[in-house]
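Q: Structure tokens for this one, please.
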Amino acid sequence: MLALAVAITLIKKCKNGQQPEPKTKTQKETTTNTDRERGFDRRISYLEYSEHAMCRMQCRQISKSEVEDMMKTGNINYSKSDLQNSRCPRYAVEGITADNQKVRIVFAQCNEKTEVVTVIDLDTDWTCHCPGDDKKYENRN
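A: Here is the predicted structure, written as tokens:
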């Protein structure tokens, strides 16, 4: 009887050791399970801003709430988008902000985040001095 009880205990321990422990979902796991490669994901929970975009927003007087509204409701301009970008697909989203600015906002949609790359006012040519501006024409032929 004692040998049988020991055998049953060992079998239970081995069986429990083979089963994976239940995982709690992290944001990255949730992101991986969400197919963000099937078009533009308009959820602002993944949104991050590049240093360049923050500078352009300040210069052009465009707020984060206007960027978020444009992400949710703007129209994708596929001729200005780069969906085959080697790092992350880039979507050029256009529309009119709450204060009547006609804008184009470029979003780079990766699996773990959507980054605001740049913010452009399509009607007004603002003079901004933002990171990366000095290299704008460096690699053009």
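A few notes: The radius of gyration is 24 Å. Strands lie at 47-49, 75-76, 90-96, 102-109, 114-121.
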